[in-house]
Amino acid sequence: MSLAKAKIWTLEKEKAGLQGKLDAQAEISSAVQEIIPKLDDIKNSKDQNLIAEIPRIIKEVTSPDIRSSVEVACREIMAEVKKTRDETRTFAHVAFQSRNLPPSQVPPSLRSSPLGEPEGILLIKPKKETLKDFIINKKIFTDILEKYDPSIRLRGIGKLYGGGVRMVAASHGDIMIVKGLIEEYGDKETMDGFDFVIPNRRSPQLIIYNVDGEVDQEQLKAGILAKNITLAVSANKPYFKVEFSIPARNSLKKHWVLSIDPKKFIEIKNRKGLYFQFSPLRTSEFISIRFCKRCFAYGHTTKNCDPKNEQKCDRCGPTMAYNSLRGIQINVNHCVAAHSGALLVARDLGLDFIAIQDPYLMKGEPLKANFGCKVFMSEGKRAITYVLNKSLNCYFKFNTMNSVTVELHFNNIIFNVFNCYFPPHDDMEQTISELQDYNFCNSFNLVVGDFNCKSRSWGYDSDNFRGRKLSEFIAASNLHICNISEYGPTFQSTIHVGFPDLTLLSIPIINYMKNWGVLYMESHSDHKYIYFNLELEDIPEADFFLKSKYGINKFSRYVKKNAGYFKNKLAKSSNIIYLNNLFLELTDFIKKAAFKTLKNKPKKFAKKYSFWNEDLRLARNKVSMLFKIYNRHKLSTSSDDVVQSSGLAYRKARAEYKRLLLSTKRKAWEIFCTNYNERFNFLFQLAFNKGGSQDSIRVNPNDNPSNTIRDKITYIMDNFFPGRTSEDDFNYIPVIGSIDLILIEDLELVFKGLERGKAPGLDRIDYHMWGAVFNLDKIFMLELFNTCFKLNYFPRCLRNARIFFLLKDGKDPGLCNSYRPVCLLPTLGVWGGDLNKYHVDRLHTIQRIFLLKFARGYRTTSTNVLNVLTGIPPLHITAKAEFLKFQIWVRRSGDYNDIINNVQLDHNILIKNIPSDMKLVSLSEHLSDATYEVYTDGSKINEETGLAVCILNDNDNIQNFLFKLKPYNSVFQAELAAIQFAANWAVSENSKINLYTDSLSSILALQSASSRENFEKKVETDLFKAKNLVGLSWVKAHVGIQGNELADQQAKLATTTGEELSIPAPRSYLNRTLKQLILHEWCGYCNKYTSASGIRVRGF
């Protein structure tokens, strides 16, 4: 029975095969029948070349491999047809023809379409979340095209990120027809959910090299048109447009970029140059790629970088960010099996990079990976780094004979990977010196390699000279040893075991080394694989700060452009949800504005170890001087004795300098290690050979060695911030009464009191930025804060804090109570305060050093006594006086009017808005045709101030003007007021006068262009109006000049009988008042000092 079933199955299979052959033969015969009539038509045509090829085509069609022959024949026929036609109609022509439109209604751009026209592209992007299914969207649009115009031809339909559709047609006209069909026949409600975009094409560009730097844009355009007549049409309309210039290496030259008409681009490009002013200039195609050096993305520049924009993949759209860096390192001992095996292991483990030392070289070149990667090697080819992750942005930084450095850009940071191999018999000092020029303290670095050094810090039982030198280099370079000796040796041969392979990491990021270990797998080398994994997703971005002190005006202008949106949103914030969203958007916008407009400056890590001092500098300078003298004597005709003596002095000084350098360096290192005596500090352990991998928080619950850093942080957080328990009752409803809203004066007082030098908050916004926002729109900020009071709610985004646990001095790091939690809040949620006792004591400590130098007293003398003996007030009192001066003179605060007895003060004005001829008043010293001589003077007697203006005609006193000023006015102001009155009198009388004054300071002030006080500028303005009527000159006082003596007597008389004249108080009055305040505060502070030395010195 089973045999019969097998036969039946075999017969059915044969039947199916025969039926398939019959069907294929039927299809081929039908295709041949369709081709034969077309071949007859071709025979009747006049194309002789095509007729001659027909027998060969028929022969190939009838060949055994019919299918391939037909395909070849069709391609040849199409090629011949295309040769015989000058142009081909695009789909746009066919579409308009099928609609039976008259020629007049066909757009001119579609009446003829030359070959080579660029493709047309239509991008359809969904606006709503419900329309992000690509399959459904594609079906919607293709159904519309198939239903309403089946003759539509598209070259392709692709997918856009977010469910969008990309359609490609033969030309721009084709895609315009497609867009029109979809918009005309598509459902209006559905079509409103999409954006239809036809992207513009950029015109091709050329760059012209080395144009004279003095040539501007218009001159270049005119010169090119004059010497290159083919670059313009008959109406002298150019085929090009001058875009912009680029600085050349030669500062006297420039490169210019031109946009060229696509029809003329190939022709101009092939010429390789253009003529300008009788000179040929070289040209080439200019391809402008915009690249951002901040986020390392393409499409924009650093100036226009938005930190919130993430770099997306063009096809799938996920963020191109890498939160971890995985790699291995190994010394392959010049073995081909070990080298190739390391590459295979790295590929199988999916690592990002591999660092190989002492590689295998074939004909002087290292092995290449057959799966593709970037290779970086040292100058001596002793260290090679393979970057396997093709998505990483990696760049060659520098290399030396024994090391190579690669710069990796990812996750908003720049990370440097050093791969080193220090041969065991090379000079260690010379090898380390290759890396000493690099500043390890200002960057994030990973240093791997085989260093061939012995030290207890990384697992050996003893130290050698090379190990001590490397330990010094590690400590000075702010690096941390990641090796864990308990994991076993990294080198193991038949006779030796050791730990020469090290992994070093910058101290600021040591907690981000998540895995480090020795892989016990076959390596075909004496060295083992060392695996490490860095997770960098939580590295704080504040490795730089924004320079808000400069460029704040640009920041304010950017904020002002977008202020209207936040005002409207504030008006609609009727509950805490809207208020939370408003604060979140506002802080994000301020951060964006700061990133766009302000420059950033990298934070520098403090260098821990330094040995240079003044003695070394003097010794070095002495050696340099003696070396120059020695060279001078050798080159001149000096005697041999002089040359030998100068050479002997130079060599002796050089030897002393080297000895001093070595001893100072050794002594400084010993002092550094001795002073760094914290019990669990890493550098102390490293210096005294107690190195090891330690966590920054050493609290270990239950002494469990398997606890992770997260477990330790959770434990210490629960200790400081305990959560809710079953016994807690949090059902507290506060009784809220009427709340008094804050006034604009209250808000001004708060913002004026903010310290501008404070560090930025968690959001990197500092007080400079918020102060600028407040000054831009005070009413908006007032309503913003009052809204919080009305809703009795503090925004959630301002309550987020980053907590730092600082170890208290002398405390046990194993206990939770030994740490002090510090919270870093957003800037808007922090308020400042006044000087407290701690600040006062710190200022005393700073000032005491200088007071001891000035007074030359004993070190036991108290600071308060030193203040009295030297006559220098305490710093905190002086600081308070400076604060009051700023508030009164600059800020014009009314809170301190009682200090100046409500006196009206003069003020400074902006002189940049004053015309230049009015800034600097230059009067003639003497007018030959003057009618009157005028003498002026000012005087102050018994705290009373007066001025006098005496007018003489041929030495006859015809009139005197006396004025009395306020007690707070100065003699300098009286002199200026007298000159101003005399100039105004000359203008009112329309008479020319020669003005004489014995105040040289007044004349110099009027001739200065930098004076800013308002009263002085008013006097200068009046003199400028009368400069053709007044001659101003200085006369010496009290030498018997009749007019000057008369003016002096009248000025003294004016202090009692003069007419009242009101002038604002000068800045000197404020200084005198604050000086008296300092003395008063100092006396009160000194009286509180009740020690024995304070009582003895109080008599001073």
Overview of this protein structure:
- The structure is a single chain.
- The chain is α+β, with helices and mostly antiparallel strands.
- Among the domains are: 37 residues; 38 residues; 78 residues, Alpha-Beta Plaits (2-Layer Sandwich); 81 residues; 219 residues, 4-Layer Sandwich (Deoxyribonuclease I, Chain A), CATH 3.60.10; 62 residues; 154 residues, Ribonuclease H-like superfamily/Ribonuclease H (Nucleotidyltransferase, domain 5).
- Helix content is 41%, strand content 18%.
- The chain is built from 32 helices and 35 strands.
- The strands form 9 sheets. Strands 14-15-11-10-25-24 form a 6-stranded mixed sheet, covered by helices on one side. Strands 16-17-18-19-23-20 form a 6-stranded mixed sheet, with helices on one face. A 6-stranded mixed sheet has the order 34-33-30-31-32-35, sandwiched between helices.
- Strand 12 and strand 13 form a beta hairpin.
- Helix 13 packs across helix 21 and helix 16 packs antiparallel against helix 17.
- The termini are far apart.
- About 8% of the residues have low confidence.
